[in-house]
Amino acid sequence: MPTRSEFWRGILLALVAALLAMPGCYRKSGQKLIVVIVPSRENPFFRVEADAAAARARQLGYAVRVEAHDDDSYKQDNLIDMALASNAAAIVLDNAGADSSVAAVRRAERAGIPCFLIDREIHVTGIAQAQIIADNDQGARLLAGEFAKEMRGAGPYAELLGTESDTNAQVRTHGFHAVLDQFPKLRLAASASANWSQSEAYQKTETILEAHPEIQGILAGNDTMALGAAAAVKNAGIRNLHIVGFDGIPDALASIRSGGMQATVLQPAAEIARMAVDEVDRFLKTGSTGRPERQVVPCELVTRANASEFEGFEHKQPLP
Fold first, then answer.
1. Assign residue 210 a region: left if phi > 0, alpha if psi is -120 to 50, beta otherwise?
2. Closest Cα to residue 207, out of 194, 195, 221, 220?
3. What is the 3-state secondary structure (H, E, C) of the chain?
């Protein structure tokens, strides 16, 4: 009986064979193919990432196929195999895990198909042509400073963490505490993983509020969890509780403008995706990106004072 991985690989490779039998179905004659693989097309952050990469690739004259691995390393393996079978010119990948993605990236590299990683890095260098990531540590420290300001440097708070195996979750919480632990009057009363999920964050926040009604603030590792926390706080009839998140998703910006959340840190998802495609283009034309493999892009703090300046995971361009 085939394993789960073998089952999906067989299905996807059969689909590739069908696609290759109809060459006009996803690329024009002579166009090189860039495959963009992201964790999800439903999450607004990853959707912007995929759309920005695809738009820039088409602008540069490439055919594009966008896929989602749903944070499933088995599915990611199969999508990489599908890209190899399609003779893709390059892969732009927001990967399914720093460790679990290494073998797939190495397999593409050995097949002569360059991988350009965005948003999430892997723990090995020399097999991807680029690893372009937001500065999660810098962003976490920015956010923690604003949170401490909102809390006036004192009081009990709770922290909602992302998936604990995710490198970004680890980097963010480390950055938070590098700042917050310097305030002796700030006290971490409760901490729980909500796995980046809004519904799970809502439930975890309800539990935390019941056990710790003295909580004065909630620090969330991403905006989706912050929005879940804000909904639970509102449902409990609690006011003046300080809630911050991370990513800069549109719903979080709206919540900040209305007073539900106080701050977030915006990751430049669209900029990073376009950078990756520009480097794909440069590499395919010259054999080099002209840049170091690991590239870190700074995040920006968003508060009610400047929330109107951001849209689509970008700082709006100033009017001429």
1. alpha
2. 194
3. CCCHHHHHHHHHHHHHHHHHHCHHHCCCCCCCEEEEEECCCCCHHHHHHHHHHHHHHHHCCCEEEEEECCCCHHHHHHHHHHHHHCCCCEEEECCCCCCCCHHHHHHHHHCCCCEEEECCCCCCCCCCCEEEEECHHHHHHHHHHHHHHHCCCCEEEEEEECCCCCHHHHHHHHHHHHHHCCCCCEEEEEEEECCCCHHHHHHHHHHHHHHCCCCCEEEECCHHHHHHHHHHHHHCCCCCCEEECCECCHHHHHHHHHCCCCEEEECCHHHHHHHHHHHHHHHHHHCCCCCCCEEEECCEEEECCCHHHEECCEECCCCC
Separation CA 1–CA 312 (nearest Å): 46
How many angstroms separate the CA atoms of 250 and 310, rounded? 9
Work out the pLDDT band at 142, boundaries 50, 70, 90: very high
> What pLDDT is stored for residue 20 in this prediction?
46
Q: What is the pTM of this model?
A: 0.83
Supply the mean pLDDT for the chain: 91
CB 106 within 8 A of CB 270: no
- Domain 136-266: CATH architecture, name and number where available: 3-Layer(aba) Sandwich (3.40)
Q: Kindly calculate the radius of gyration of the chain based on its CA atoms and give it in whole angstroms.
A: 21
Give the mean model confidence (pLDDT) for residues 204-233.
97
Q: Which residues of the chain does CATH 3.40.50.2300 include?
A: 4-128, 136-266
CATH number for the domain formed by residue range(s) 4-128: 3.40.50.2300
